[in-house]
């Protein structure tokens, strides 16, 4: 897909809730579901994890809007990126890069010297995305969130004058 030209980056608003939950469900279906045990997948659905996450942290998200529609978001605390999600229909269009540019610039402006985040070993696409941005593996450990035998990678990137 060609890069999207008009991506608005802004703070999340209460009216974005439905779109944010839809993005989480979309990325769950396209990325996580094929890797999970049926029990873990059912737990995700029955606990409505997207609604719980958006209810807890949604107004802290920074969103990407294209043509009036929210198509992605980034959630960060301090120097840690909790989540970066982009609707599958906007993957590889520049949305994720713009969101990470914003997150990294904000971290640097807040005085952080590094950015940290996690991904899983199966997610080769995200690993490639982050490697191009200068992230390197710092650790790996069992992914206890999904109870599916996955392995999490901790990725770290130094922040400085060249950020993003």
What tags apply to this protein structure?
7 strands, 29% strand, 164 residues, 7-stranded mixed beta sheet, alpha+beta, Aminopeptidase, 35% helix
The ordered string of helix (H) and strand (E) elements is: EHHHEEEHEHEE
Q: What does the main sheet amount to?
A: 7 strands, mixed
Strand order of the largest sheet: 1-2-3-4-5-7-6
The oligomeric state is single chain
Write the layout of secondary structure elements.
Layout (H helix, E strand, L loop, with lengths): L6 E5 L5 H16 L5 H9 L2 H9 L4 E5 L2 E9 L2 E7 L8 H15 L4 E7 L3 H9 L3 E7 L8 E8 L6
Parallel strand pairs: 4-5
Antiparallel strand pairs: 1-2, 2-3, 3-4, 5-7, 6-7
Helix pairs in contact: 1-3
How would you describe this structure to a colleague?
With 164 residues, this protein is α+β, with helices and mostly antiparallel strands. It has a single domain (7-158), classed as 3-Layer(aba) Sandwich (Aminopeptidase). The chain is 35% helix and 29% strand. It is built from five helices and seven strands; from the N terminus they run βαααβββαβαββ. The chain has helices spanning 17-32, 38-46, 49-57, 95-109, 124-132, and strands at residues 7-11, 62-66, 69-77, 80-86, 114-120, 136-142, 151-158. A seven-stranded mixed sheet has the order 1-2-3-4-5-7-6. Strand 6 and strand 7 (151-158) form a beta hairpin. It is globular, with a radius of gyration of 15 Å. The model has no long low-confidence stretch (mean pLDDT 90).
